[in-house]
Specification:
The chain is an all-alpha fold and 73 residues long. Helices cover 77% and strands 0% of the residues.
């Protein structure tokens, strides 16, 4: 069983290089960043209260996706 755990550790380094290419690609991150602030800017100050629940909705959607994926498997 210890051998199996060691194999999992070897897999962990492979995901580490994936985050490094992310910073290497500034255009992708820039495209994602401007979209979020642009939405907040378009919304008036009064809608700031709505941004709170919207974030909760995003979290709920993520949870639903994760649950659906887990159930799918």
């Amino acid at each position: 069983m210890a051998g199996g755990r060691k194999r999992t550790r070897q897999k962990s380094p492979s995901p580490s290089p994936s985050p490094s290419p992310s910073p290497s690609q500034p255009p992708d991150s820039n495209l994602d960043l401007p979209t979020e602030p642009s939405d907040t800017r378009t919304q008036p100050a009064g809608s700031v209260d709505e941004t709170g629940p919207s974030e909760l909705n995003d979290d709920e959607q993520l949870r639903k996706l994760v649950i659906s994926i887990l159930i799918f498997f």
